[in-house]
Amino acid sequence: MNQLLDKKTVITGSSEGIGFGIAEAFARNGADVWLVGRDVTKLQQSQEKLQTYNINVQTTAIDLYAEGASMQLADTICQKWDAVDVLVNNAGLSIFTPFSEVSPAEFESQLTLNVRVPYLFTQALLPQLQLARGSIINISSYFAQRAIPVRPSSAYSLTKGAINSFTKTLACELGSTGIRVNAIAPGATRTPLHARNTQKLSPEAKTRLDEYLQVSYPLNSMGEPEDIGNMAVYLASDAAKWITGAIFNVDGGLTTN
């Protein structure tokens, strides 16, 4: 434990689900954590949970869709932290709509939160990351590599494919500064967001999805947020000091099947 003692870590979309799973894994390992989300109540509840690990926990409630939000958030963080050791770009949006029915608004909302925000926020925090010779971890998705029955994902998959490309090119560009850039591509993970998305499916579609998950995962189970958190801890730690530009599938074997 304490692999990340006193490391200053910023995690977007971290009030619940995968983001909170990452935050809790970092807290267990001694990192100070800055939680970012839109829901003030959820952020407060998450902050209270993490403070039981005797670490410093900051929170910012902000709508990252808003123009200038990335720079505003970076400015807020820099007022308290001179350097940032780890940035986890986790905030994201998935809307599963057939290609022929995707509206411009649906497309733009996913493009904004999944691509534009991590790009601009990383850029805004770059001076603080350079001071710490830090680590950037982007949260991608198995949807960047694979289509799933009853989950039409052309827009979402496009954005996560962009994150994979961003990860690799930024790793090359920033390597000389000592900053490492990697991505984690989770498989189906048991989160409130996953539950909300599956509730929208028809009974027939839900049955098809359940059957697909049962036969497609060699480990025969969905992931948990802590599974993603454990990988993020490794990538942020000194144990991964020679790893950059890599996309790690944490998906129970889905992408091998």
Supply database-style keywords.
single chain; 257 residues; alpha/beta; seven-stranded parallel β-sheet; 46% helix
How would you summarize the topology of this molecule?
Elements lengths: L7 E5 L4 H12 L3 E6 L2 H12 L5 E5 L7 H10 L7 E4 L14 H29 L2 E5 L14 H21 L5 E7 L5 H8 L3 H14 L8 H12 L10 E4 L7
Parallel strand pairs: 1-2, 1-4, 2-3, 4-5, 5-6, 6-7
Helix pairs in contact: 1-2, 1-8, 3-4, 4-5
Write a short abstract of this structure:
The protein has eight helices and seven strands; from the N terminus they run E-H-E-H-E-H-E-H-E-H-E-H-H-H-E. It has 257 residues and is an alpha/beta fold. The longest helix is centred in the middle third of the chain and has 29 residues, at 104-132.
How would you characterize this protein structure?
There is one protein chain. This protein is of the alpha/beta class. 46% of the residues lie in helices and 14% in strands. It has a seven-stranded parallel beta sheet with strand order 3-2-1-4-5-6-7, sandwiched between helices. Helix 3 packs parallel to helix 4. The protein is globular. The model has no long low-confidence stretch (mean pLDDT 93).
